[in-house]
């Protein structure tokens, strides 16, 4: 099974509704709750191989959806640009002597902070 923890969590957050309930549950238990394949198999009453197959199918669905849509990639790029704009707004606020410009930069920083989440 593939990917780092953050990537796998983001895939589930963005595209989890495309999975069956069983796929979503097993994927979450494996990637987010750190249960082993054996632990999941024991808890749900199927074989370890059955759990593995379901998780691999879920991963393939999520990865293929990201490959086609690129939403996570675009989201990450937007977050990076918002962070960059926030730094620029803070720099303007600090470096300006004009109170009106400083107030506008502060408002811009607030908006960017809200967008960044």
Automatic annotation (TrEMBL):
Concerning HAMAP family, the annotation shows: UPF0122
User: What exactly does this protein do?
Assistant: Might take part in the signal recognition particle (SRP) pathway. This is inferred from the conservation of its genetic proximity to ftsY/ffh. May be a regulatory protein.
Q: Which family does it belong to?
A: Belongs to the UPF0122 family.
Name used for this protein in its record: UPF0122 protein SAMN02745823_00198
Per the UniProt entry, what species is this protein from, by scientific name? Sporobacter termitidis DSM 10068
